[in-house]
Amino acid sequence: MANLDRHRSAQPSAAHEALAALIHAGVVECVISLNWDTALESAYRRQYGTGIPDGILFKPHGDAADPQQPWMLPHLPGTLDPDLRDRIRSLVADHPRTLLIVGYSERDTVVVDQLIAPLDQGWRVCRMGPDVSGSDDIPAVADTALPALANGTRQREATSAWHTVPFSGRHDISHALAGERLGPSDVEDCPRLPEVALLVDALRRDHAVVLNGDSGCGKSITAYQALSDLLEDGYEVLRLRDDARKRDLRQWMADLSLYPHRKALLVDDAQDLPADLVRELAETATADQLVLVVGVDHVAGGVTTYRISNIAAVGALARDMRERSDEILPKIRALDDFVGNLAGDELLMNRIEEASTKDSAWLFFYTLTGGWRRTERDALDLRGHDRSDLLLLALAIAQIASVDAGVTTDSLGPYARQLGRDRAWIDRSLAILRDKRLITGNDGVLRCAHLRSAWALIRWMLHPPRYSHTPPQPVTIPPITSAAETPAAPLPPPIRRTERPRAVLPDHQVEADRKTAAALFRFSLDSPHIPLRGAAWLIGRNHDSESRWVLNQYDVLHRPRIHALAERALATPTGPDAAMAAQLLENLLSPYEDDCLDLIRDHHGGPRMGTRCHAGKRLGDR
Length: 622
Known about the structure:
Layout: H1 2-8, H2 14-24, E1 31-32, H3 39-48, E2 57-58, H4 82-94, E3 98-102, H5 109-120, E4 124-128, H6 142-158, E5 162-164, H7 174-177, H8 195-206, E6 208-212, H9 219-229, E7 236-240, H10 249-255, E8 263-267, H11 275-282, E9 289-295, E10 304-307, H12 310-323, H13 325-335, H14 348-355, H15 361-368, H16 371-383, H17 388-401, H18 413-418, H19 423-435, E11 439-442, E12 445-448, H20 451-462, H21 507-526, H22 532-540, H23 545-553, H24 559-570, H25 578-589, H26 593-604
Helix pairs in contact: 2-3, 2-6, 8-9, 12-14, 14-15, 16-20, 17-19, 17-20, 17-21, 22-25, 24-25, 24-26
């Protein structure tokens, strides 16, 4: 019976799904099931990720999930166990309720005499079925009537600030290898970082935790893996919807009334939220309402905080990939056919070794699978789709300027106008980008597949110059024959890996791409709405010297703009934005130290040092 139930209960049923929703909302407080199957439990777990809370479901005739317990066969009289009797007595003592009888023939005299008849004395009793005719009865089958009863509950949940994470799907490791944004469906197959266990322990102990880390270090998947472990403790995982970020904390808390059972709240990408808001949310945490906040930068003080170690993360991934080399090799070859075991291939272990030198989990997988080849390939392919690559570039710049908060379709409009494009082109291009899985969209908020993908695309569109050099010949020192009886054998020459082939565009296309990218950079940096941190990211984060050279050549980082950004940073009052202003000034000081120092001295009334830059040029000189 248990084996038969395993297959049948996996099939969704409208009645069971609706009843699970009513239980979840607290509308149904107690269920007495005289069936053996686990269809209701499966429906609840499918929708809410965890089991039905204790004290709600009773199965006095047996349970396919626990076949060792006594079962009541159809020819035997029923029974009510003591726990069920105690639960009914507590409900009766509290206040009158409604007893809903669904699909039950009422032929079992024990159940009728000891349960239904006593409750009928003080409660309203309704029967549901196609042949019922009482004044309070519902003449309809359960598959029709229960979904109608649950409709209002479902609608309220759909518009709330919170979304249940059921952990129902499952991706294999290919999802992580391809560099896609990781989520609940990746918790099983992705390697676990040491911070997972730390988070679980801290949430159980302190109830509120902040997880920080650089972009691409594995924060989101670590958070989801930790929260998935808490499902067995009976916690339902709720993620703050992207479109709810602009609502205030009172609305967030009010919407939690729709989720009356134990829960763990997840706020991901919290770097764009005010620190006070994060702190106030953390202060609502209890043993029955955990709070986990995840962000790129430090998002709040006074809360237990962990930061993912890039070095430890890359080390853990390298170890896991070596152990799973037979499994991952065909998946990596599907992404980069330069890797393999044939003559001329790059050995997988060599690629893992190269990847292990990188400074983040995302960059580890990006290197392991030759991600740079995919960025170029995707961008080149999109050029043939009415230059959809330009919309992806605009989205990448806007995403970085928003500090990875993402953008809406409407906010892409001004960028498109800089390109001489209209809304119809935006809609067509977004459809292509979604089809190719180059962007993600949650609650109307768009992002590149990952923040690192955005940076890789920007670097490609800037077409930074490449320089080559001939490595010097190693100096060979002959052995001293008198120092050993047998001369040592000469070492084999080092293996030099040739540069991987990259696409080369005609000069006029390179020039056009650079001008377009520079125009979008200038538009974003000149916007009065760009956050200070967003400006700091755009001008100073992840640019190598060659990319920065292109930005200088095309007037992105020229004197008036640098001065305007520095003056805006200096005008920032003391408060939560002061740290971001300091970060922006630090990024401006690196290439234009003397001019920025003069502005700082002017702001504070100190002596100027002149207008000569640290590198010996005037700001803005070419």
